[in-house]
Amino acid sequence: MGNTLEQKEVKTVQPTSLHKSDFNFHYVIGKGGFGRVWKVEMRKTHQILAMKEMYKFRVVSKRSVYSVMNERKLLSILKHPFIVNMQYAFQDKENLFLAMDLMTGGDLRFHIGKVRRFTEEETRFFVACIVTGLEYLHVNGVIHRDIKPENLVFDNKGYLRITDFGIAKIFTPENFRDTSGTPGYMAPEVMCRQNHGIAVDYFALGVLTYEFMVGRRPYSGRNRKEIKDGIMSRQVQLKKSEVPPGWSMEAADFINKLLQRKPENRLGNNGPHEVKNHQWLRDFPWKKLLEKSLEAPYICLSEDNFDSRVNNDWKDDIDPSIRQKSIEGIFEGYFFDARAPPRRMSDEKIQIQKGEESTVQIRYQENIQKSFV
After folding, report:
1. Do residues 42 and 49 touch, judged by C-beta distance below 8 A?
2. Alpha-carbon Rg for the chain in angstroms
3. What residues does ATP bind to (predicted)?
4. What is the mean pLDDT of residues 309-330?
């Protein structure tokens, strides 16, 4: 995490160069806390994208200004075939717009709802995709902190990519105050308000892999407290009798080592190489995966891989007092254009949170060759 990395940033483009009218909005494919996600087409280039349309007052009402600004900043310096990359970001008077790669396969939660469990072959492939994306983030000092099925989406070849970087962070040693995440996938050290590192993402990976195998999460509850109490009261450990037919004990061992409550005992705590060298993944064809030359074992055949409930009407739940406040200037700098030529930035600083800055030195590595020896 402490390596000195080469940093790249995107050249500033005037905010007047992009507008909603530059895109044809086809139909809604998703819904989030701030607005909808559209399938759009850029008029000039005919590029098909997914466009988040976020209502500014809703972002302010949910106290999520930092989250949406943080996501744009991180995505402006991250680019990799196993994450969902940002192409454009801009705003108008009422909304923020974030254009991303369109993932026609839908999110993993949608498919878990359809099949409930996956085979070991499918799971191994999914895990390899996630690990490859996490490796890129972790080598570059970024912790995702919200790995879950809703934030993993299928591309048109059946490969999973990581998305939603709203609570992702550049690693800092003193981060015990950062307790954001999704309880069912949140590592114990985050729940207990302790300093945490990349191991939190591998705990979430363990929860996912357990869910693929067993059909439910290892720790459940009606709220965060119940889930925390469950984690604190027992260490989940898959036994031979609990391993479904068609699954190997190596897969169970992989899950058990990821779900260790103490991060120092958890697989991946010392880096992604630990995960990739586990006996369950050791012989996986990593280079072919990165090249996307493997045939995915689970293919999303239909392009209609989206929850139909996203077309429901919005509930107008914004605090009326928020509407009366001025939001001018709050989202200053919310802009990005992937067509702009990148330039080297030797000492660029990105604000991580109010009153705290960290020098971010990101190296673009679409192919981390040393990881595939």
Report:
1. yes
2. 20
3. 52
4. 61
pLDDT band at residue 274 under the 50/70/90 scheme: very high
Q: pTM here?
A: 0.84
d(CA 161, CA 154): 6
Domains in the chain, ordered, with CATH? 8-104+306-372 (3.30.200.20), 108-291 (1.10.510.10)
- Retrieve residue 218's tokens: 């290892």
Which parts of 92-179 are beta strand (E)? 95-101, 142-143, 152-154, 160-162, 169-170
User: What gap in Å lies between CA 346 and CA 319, rounded to an integer?
Assistant: 43
Do 75 and 165 form a contact (C-beta atoms < 8 A)?
yes
Q: Which letter does DSSP use for residue 298 in this model?
A: S
The 10 Å Cβ neighbour count of residue 240 is: 7
Q: Is 93 assigned a ligand-binding role in the annotation?
A: no
297: which residues sit within 8 A by CB, 6+ positions away? 119, 121, 122, 125, 158
Pairing of strands 356-359, 8-10: unpaired
Polymer length in residues for the chain: 373
Q: Using the structure block, give the residue that is written with the tokens 């809604």.
A: 28
For residue 276, what pLDDT band results from cuts at 50, 70 and 90?
Answer: very high
Query: Which are the catalytic amino acids?
Result: 146
- Dump pLDDT digits (tens) for 337-369: 988 765 443 333 333 333 333 333 333 233 333
Q: How confident is the model at residue 259 (pLDDT cuts 50, 70, 90)?
A: very high
Cα–Cα distance, 197 to 134 (Å, whole number): 13
For the chain, the distance separating the N- and C-terminal CA atoms, rounded to the nearest angstrom, is 21
